[in-house]
Amino acid sequence: MGTSQTSPDRHPEHLLVRSGGQRCAIPLDAAPQVTGVLPTVPLPRSAPRLLGLAQFAGEPVAVVDLHGLLDPAGLAGGGYRLTVILRHRHGAAPLGLAVDDALGMVAVERDEDRRPDDPPWVAGRGRAAGQPAVLLDPARLFEPVP
Amino acid sequence: MEPVPRPSTLRRWLGMVVLVAVVLAGAVVIELVSDDGANPWPFRAWAVIGLTAVIAHLLLSSLPRVRLERAHDELLRRHDEQCSALRNSLDEIRFGDLVGCLEPAAKLPEAMQAAVDAAAHAMATLLKQIQNASVDVATSAGTVHSTSAELVDGASHQAAAVVEITATTEELARTAGQIATNAVAQADLADRAREAGNAGARALERAVESAGALRQGIEVIADRADVLGERSREIYRVLDLITEIAQETHILALNAAIEASAAGEHGARFGVVAEEVRRLAERSRESVDSVRKLLDEFSGGIRSVVVATEQGSKAADQVLELSRSTQSAIEQLRTALDDTARTASDISLATDEQRTASDQVVLTLRQVAELVQRTADGFRQFSASAERLDDLALSIQLLTQSFRIDSVHSLKHQVLGWSDRLRDATSNLEAVEGVLATIVRDFPYIELAYLVDPSGTMVAFEVNPQVVDEQRLTGTLAVGQAYADRPWFLAVKRDERPAVTSPYGSLLTGERCFTVAAAVHDREGATLGTLGVDVNVRSWTRI
């Protein structure tokens, strides 16, 4: 813990979270909100990374395992401690990302764009607080999967 | 019979001469006294009377005498012949041939012949009776000998058994003494063990008390460990609450930081505060984790103490239980030791009595052994007597075999019969061997039948395989061997009669045997050889 340090010369733009051993930077543009673990109701015949539906601030929230999003081959490992709520800029229903921990506000130095085999919601890769991190594109999370 | 002395011829005719001279002298006197022949009648009468007297003397005296002398001579001749026949017959009897004695007796007068026949028959009958009696004696002696041998053997075994029993009883007496000694020692040991058991029981009572105190101490520790466990659980609950608060603070700080970032330059200071709050929440959570870790170790220690106290309590219970069981066992042991000491004393007394009884039994057994030994000695003497009686019966049988009687049991008679069968076969060796084979086949008591020529050289032989071992035969017998110095050959040659030898050891069987031999004559009486048969005494007496 304590890896998140706001760069003194750059304004922090990302919320750095950890999920399944991966570090992921979520842009603050997506107006994230952090909450505890939400009790979910599983959906039949849903993808394994979709943990279920929960209720947050009176709204239904689909809770997705972030590790499952970043590594489709990986299974949801459990051990979530926080849920990051993302909202679509056009007012769509919020989306919950189940993460292991939130490490703080960071500025990310982008190193490379997304790879061809990356999922569509991965924007690229960079370094946050001196360590590699995956840059998340939250807007693509609200788009239909091709 | 002595011949009657006869008068000389002169004396035999002297009376006739005197009578003639008297007649002639009377005629001369009559002639002289007569008157010159005037009366011739006295002279003629005298001549007639004188001639009549001479003729009468001749007819009435001389001729009967001559006839009597001739009859006397004939009688003497016949007497000599009969005496010779009688002598020959008696000679045959002297040599034991009660069959051959009848042949010369045929020349004797009928009454004498009948007397010789009766005598020979009576002797043969007597010999048969003697043979039968000797066979019975031999059989009985053999039975007595075998029975007495078995009795000797049994008595010997009995004596040996008595000796063994005596030795065993002596050993038993010694063992009883050792048992008595050991029983006394065991009683002493039991007393000492009982004293040791008493000391052990006292020590065990103290151990039981200590185990009870230990159990109570362990129960106190367990109660205190339970209290500590309860306190730990309360601390856990407080830590959970602190963790929850830190988590909420962490979330709030994160959201505040997010909001501050969204506010841009205006929220920079608030963002710093929010970040600091988040760090404090993070440190609180880390501290709680450290405390939780320490508390986990503490709780683990308490659980270990609880487990240890439970185990200690169980161990104390087991020690207590074992101590009580041991106490009971020691009590039983003390009782058993009392019984052992008492029993050992009883055993000592009983073994003393047993030793005394065993000594008496040994004394009695020695007397019995001596009696059995005397009995065995008596049986041995009895067996030796039976053996001597058997030998005596055999001697009697051999003596009877020195006689030849008309019986299948007369070996001389049998040998003479076989020699007659060989008479016409001597020119054919195969025929001789056939006769010899028939002999040994039909008479199983014969070990060996053989024929030697007049010079005593072996011509042929036949061995009885039922009696003789083939292995012992190798190199023992061979055609061409000289037997001229054998007693049976010399006896037959000397006496020209069948002979029976005394018993001797057979080279073929190793047992006693004797030889019966007889000459083989042709029809003209010339000797062709000697037939011998070796009779196995054991088989013969058995038959």
Quick synopsis:
The complex is a heterodimer of chains A (146) and B (543). Chain A is mainly beta and 146 residues long.
List the topology elements.
The complex is a heterodimer of chains A (146) and B (543).
Chain A: E1 14-19, E2 22-27, E3 33-35, E4 50-56, E5 59-65, H1 66-70, E6 82-86, E7 95-99, E8 101-106, E9 108-113, E10 122-128, E11 131-136, H2 138-141
Parallel strand pairs in A: 2-11, 5-7
Antiparallel strand pairs in A: 1-2, 1-8, 3-6, 4-5, 6-7, 9-10, 10-11
Chain B: H1 9-33, H2 41-94, H3 102-105, H4 110-262, H5 268-401, H6 411-423, H7 429-442, E1 446-452, E2 458-463, H8 470-473, H9 487-495, E3 499-500, E4 504-505, E5 512-521, E6 527-536, H10 537-542
Antiparallel strand pairs in B: 1-2, 1-6, 3-5, 4-5, 5-6
Count of helix runs of chain A: 2
Overall SS class of chain B? alpha+beta
Oligomer: heterodimer
Q: Unreliable runs of chain A, pLDDT <50, ≥5 residues?
A: 1-8
Structural class call of chain A reads mainly beta
Beta-strand content bin of chain A: 35-45%
Average residue pLDDT of chain B? 84
Strand content of chain B: 5-15%
Largest pleated sheet of chain B: 6 strands, antiparallel
Radius of gyration of chain A: 15 Å
**In order across it, which strands form the biggest sheet of chain A?**
8-1-2-11-10-9
Q: Which residues of chain B sit in consecutive blocks of at least 5 with pLDDT less than 50?
A: none
* Most extensive contact: A-B, 20 and 18 residues
- Portion of residues within helices of chain A: under 10%
Question: Which whole number gives the mean pLDDT of chain A?
Answer: 84
Helix count of chain B equals 10
Give the SSE order of chain B as H and E letters. Answer: HHHHHHHEEHHEEEEH
Instruction: Report the count of strand segments of chain A.
Output: 11
Care to describe what's here?
- The complex is a heterodimer of chains A (146) and B (543).
- Chain A has 146 residues and is mainly β.
- Chain A has 2 helices and 11 strands.
- Chain A has helices at 66-70, 138-141, and strands spanning 14-19, 22-27, 33-35, 50-56, 59-65, 82-86, 95-99, 101-106, 108-113, 122-128, 131-136.
- In chain A, strand 1 and strand 2 (22-27) form a beta hairpin.
- The longest helix of chain A has 5 residues, at 66-70.
- Chain B is α+β, with helices and mostly antiparallel strands.
- Chain B has 10 helices and 6 strands; from the N terminus they run H-H-H-H-H-H-H-E-E-H-H-E-E-E-E-H.
- In chain B, strands 1, 2, 3, 4, 5 and 6 form a 6-stranded antiparallel beta sheet that branches.
- The mean pLDDT of chain B is 84.
- The interface between A and B is medium-sized, with 20 and 18 residues.
